[in-house]
Amino acid sequence: MNPSLRSPRAARRAPALFSGKRALVLAALALAAAGCGGKKQEARAPGPVEVGVVTISPQAVTLTTELPGRVSAFKVAEVRARVNGIVLKRLFTEGSDVKQGQPLFKIDPAPYQAALDSARAQLARAEATLASARLTSERYTELVAANAVSRQEHEDAVAALKKAEADVAAGRAAVDAARINLGYTTVTSPVSGRIGRSEVTEGAYVQAAQATLLATVQQLDPVYVDVTQSSAELLRMRRDLEAGKLQSAGAGKAKVALTTEDGHEYGLPGTLQFADVTVDPGTGSVKLRAIFPNPRAELLPGTYVRARLAEGVDPAALLVPQRGVARNNKGEPTALVVAGGKAELRTLSTERVVGDAWLVTGGIKPGDQVIVEGLQKVRPGAPVNPVPAGVAKQASAAPAAGQPGPSGAAR
Questions:
Q1: What stretch of H or E contains 384?
Q2: What are the distances in angstroms from CA 280 to CA 225, 283, 289, 308?
Q3: Which of 106, 276, 309, 334 lies most in the core, judged by the most C-beta atoms within 10 Å?
Q4: 330 plus 350 within the same structural domain
Q5: Residues 81, 310: contact at Cβ < 8 Å?
Q6: For the chain, how long is the longest CA-to-CA vector?
Q7: Averaged pLDDT of the chain
Q8: Is the pLDDT of residue 17 over 70?
Q9: Can you tell me the distance from the alpha carbon of 41 to that of 29, in angstroms, rounded to the nearest whole number?
Q10: Range of the domain at 294
């Protein structure tokens, strides 16, 4: 088509199309240049990353074990009826402290007073018979020597004397028994401690045959704390002590600390009393018993507690802060250690937690530098610039010289 024959509208559209194509070409060239620049930046080798490290050094650590347990009273006395009768009066306040020998209940004494009076009368009769028999025996002894009575009569008199003596002994025992039963009508506390609620009221009939429970007295100062420890842990601790891996805390120094069920530390320390000699076949555990002072009666029998027992002292323990330990896909504990200016991944053997650190028995050695700060910026094999932990954090928090501060002004 002849250009001269184009319409005016087509003539105006041609320069616009040409300028649009030129803009697209320029944009493509700009993107290509930017991509080349990005590749050049990626090709640059990054410098060493500054990380905070902790240098591992052996130290003496007292190893403890935390075990669950229950509080039990130092002494528990169940006050029971020892004679039959009607309870006339209760002589104590429920929940109060009582002393040993303090009267607690009064049982009707009338039948036992009558029995005592009867026994005394029987004893008096036996004593009178004894006196007569003794005189008769003495007289027959003189007469038989003079052949005034037969030997048989003398022997009968001696036998009557011995029978009278036996009757007197039985009478005295009956008096003692009646006196004891009369004394049982006043029920006293067998131990000093705190008494609970009364199991009977005035007017109740109690029996000695069923040993009717009247009340319970418990001594609460001191108290026992009974805990359980697995027999495997007990054997391991003994082997470590024998091998010298642990040093004994010494006799009389087996201290026990206590945490109550609400998470608070009990202020007074206790001491370990003994470990049972029998392993529970159902649980594979051994009973341990500690004793604690309880002057304010804070620890009540049956309370759940957690006890921390000192096992011994590890003179060369290696502790790695927990913040520097992670877990791999297998669940094994790992840590990044500075080796030859690079981060090296180590698999650790951890035994237990001590405070905010892991007690490590394998994977590191004294003098190793474990990375605890800047872990998110470093990978195994990457070059690192180790600084003591805390210094890197302070350096990153402080703005560099000549850079804008918090207010935006250059320093």
A1: strand 384-388
A2: 18, 6, 15, 21
A3: 309
A4: yes
A5: no
A6: 194
A7: 82
A8: no
A9: 19
A10: 62-73+221-314
